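Each field is set out underneath.
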Amino acid sequence: MPIPGTLESVPGYPDKLKIYRMAASPFWQVRFFDGRKTIKRSTGATDKRIAHRFAKDLYEQILYSKFGDADNTGRSRFGVCAAGMLEAQAGRVLRKEISAQSHQNDIYMLNNRVLPFMRELDVSEVTYEVLERFVAALSDLSASAIQRHLGIVRKTLDYAANHRLLTGIPNFPKIKKREEPRGWFTVREYRRLWSKARSLLGTRQVIEPKSGKETDIRHVLFTDDLLYMIVFMVNSFIRPTDLKTMQHRHVEIIRNSHTYLRLTLPESKKHNKPIVTLRRAVDAYERLTATHRAEGLAGPADYVFLPQFKNRATALRRLEQQFNFLLDALDLKTGLRGEKRTIYSLRHTSIMYRLLYGDGIDMLTLARNARTSIEMIERFYASELAGEMNIDVIQSQRRRKVRSDLR
């Protein structure tokens, strides 16, 4: 068992790669869960810096043994090139060019769908026809997911070409991506969510398992965190992943001509600028903080939402379970046009409300504050606006230029 306070993740690597100390040994230990089993090793070192290097080396060895050749033969085999690509990409994670989560997602998709199809092929054998068959094998996935899998194949072939193992990259099949509208909540639906969450506070509800097995039944306790999360997200533009990383030290209350929160959150999707919230987010934050302060969990390093869970993936999962139960109870899982709604829909609602009810807000300001791009705002949010939603703007006139025959 790890000595309390010594268990920590290795920066820049997947969260499942950890070092720790235990009472039975003076040396730092390493453990990594590869999706099937937990691998443990002693570093033989008492210096934490050496332990970090040992953990990184172990991680790379695991990757190579998983995706490459044990005897280092067949350098142009797709599986070997994939292992080399991942090793190079791990360096990009350390340089913070890409996130550790993106790297972990690539490993998952390689292991799950790409390598079972292409592992034994020579990279020169990956032709347009092979890629077409690969796309056909992914027909159960969405267009976006197919594109991500093809992106991993391309990165592997690029690695092979850069190391002179391939003379040219084949053409890739074109995947027609159908833009799906983002699910969001009308004002009436938002009020229903809030009211239902308040009525469930302190109760423990049963979540029926999809498997139908009684052993999979879960009981979920409804907490203040759900109620204030709904208000906070709709008034702050944050992503669900911010819920699990946001600590009190990331939050600053500003009170001058306007009252708002300044959120200096960890970088997400290559955006690191502070977010400013609407006034209602301040009230939600202060009320939730008061609740956790009574439990001794409101210090600068404590998390804002569900701080009692040190495993932040578990904390986010608990919030998602509560919110999904709420959607099912109110029959709000899907919108009128079939768009799916999840906890992410609260962020979409926040952006849509600014487009609908904001007074003269421009796209650039909104995009930067929501840590997204103008293109994303136009493609997924502004495209949802109908004329009737802003009827006052449609019917507005500039008084000085109104001709008498228009009156």
About this structure: The chain is about 45% helix and 10% strand. Residues 183 and 338 are 9 Å apart (CA to CA). The longest helix spans residues 48-67.
